[in-house]
Amino acid sequence: xxxxxxxxxxxxxxxDRSQTGNAMxxxxxxxxxGRLLVALFTLxxxxxxxFCATAILPGDVAEVLLGQAATPEAVAGLRAAMHLDEPGxxxxxxxxxxxxxGDLGVSYAxxxxxxxxxxxxxxxxxxxxxxxxLASVPIAxxxxxxxxxxxxxxxxxLLTFGVIAVISVPEFxxxxxxxxxxxxxxxxxxxxxxxxxxxxxxxxxxxFAMPVITLAFVISAQMIRMTRAAMIETLNTPxxxxxxxxxxxxxxxxxxHALPNAVGPIINAVALSLSYxxxxxxxxxxxxNYPGIAKLMVDAVSTRDLPLIQSCAMVFCVVYLLLITIADxxxxxxxxxxx
Length: 339
Known about the structure:
CATH architecture: Orthogonal Bundle
Shape: flat
């Protein structure tokens, strides 16, 4: 058979492989698009839930702002000025349209645009979350992978016991214990975290130390547990066993065969663990008086500042959905069967 005949005999198979690859690419991107549409629909549902939850808060906003000595006419006039006398569905549509255009409204208590109030506080919370992630993610992933490799050993058992113990303790207990140990007894760190008091890099570390320690304990424990489970599942697969039988070194088995195929579950573990920051940061910022967006939302609840409460809640929801959506997309694109 000459060379031309060989090429003609191979061309159908090459075309089939090309068509299969194109179909697989379309399938992958359809999955990614589906995740994005689900995230967008979830955001709309969450916005409706947030609006309804803030609308049923006890107490009249107008009466809280004007005080108990306000006349009924003054209360009614203020309610009309803030559009609180309109139907709830109309107020929700107006608020949702404002969210879409970037207009979060005006704070009832401060008489300032909500964006101006949230901006600096959101930056402080992002700083705290970023420092916590930089401190906890590398350590947690390393410990989780080592525990999976050495599963059943004394190191694995001790680490598992410590992870379960940390998960069982709520954030406020960890924060209170940190204050008692490092601020009251040892007097190494300040009990309150006020960023404007920092005059040097060492002062900045001392200010961030207590909140970061508290948050890192909780999210690291979750991350270690899920990373260990993902790596153990990957290490038990047939292709890893085949590499082991062929005489591959433990480092090559982990770095070349197991870890690349566990990227998706590990990314999900990181995203889910970092999402716990949303719940933990509210407690931590309140206990340590850290000037973040969670502390701003807690203060807004006490004054029934509905636009500020709704905007802060939506920021938390958007960050959570963004983390989960990114994790889903990365898990899809890193799936070796789809590649």
